[in-house]
């Protein structure tokens, strides 16, 4: 059980930064197209905060599902 939880956490940690960057780039480009202008520093920082918040859940969910498929559900025995 401990190995399963540690592997979920490690994979989620490794995926957090690339997922954050991907979500940030997509959301910044979408907002720039919508507003038809370049974003200022506070808007960029707000989009980064939003991307980090979303990527926590995405990376944890993907890591759990990946390890569940790879290792299987841990049992006591």
Summarize the structure.
The protein has 77 residues and is an all-alpha fold. The chain is 83% helix and 0% strand.
Features:
single chain, 77 residues, mainly alpha, 2 helices, 83% helix
Detailed description of the structure:
- This protein is mainly alpha-helical.
- The protein has one domain.
- Helices cover 83% and strands 0% of the residues.
- The chain contains two helices and no strands.
- Helix 1 (2-35) runs antiparallel to helix 2.
- The model has no long low-confidence stretch (mean pLDDT 94).
Sheet-strand content, in percent, reads under 5%
> What order do the helices and strands follow?
HH
Provide the low-confidence segments as ranges.
Answer: none
- Derived from helix and strand composition plus strand pairing, the structural class reads mainly alpha
Whole-number radius of gyration? 17 Å
Strand count, sense and closure of the main sheet? Answer: none
- Helix % is over 70%
Q: Number of helical segments?
A: 2
Give the tally of β-strands: 0
Mass-distribution shape: elongated
Blueprint of the fold:
Elements: H1 2-35, H2 41-70
């Amino acid at each position: 059980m401990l190995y399963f939880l540690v592997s979920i956490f490690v994979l989620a940690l490794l995926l957090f930064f690339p997922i954050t960057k991907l979500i940030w780039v997509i959301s910044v480009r979408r907002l720039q197209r919508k507003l038809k202008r370049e974003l200022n520093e506070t808007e960029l920082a707000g989009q980064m905060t939003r991307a980090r918040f979303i990527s926590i859940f995405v990376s944890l969910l993907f890591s759990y599902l990946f390890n569940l498929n790879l290792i299987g559900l841990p049992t006591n025995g």
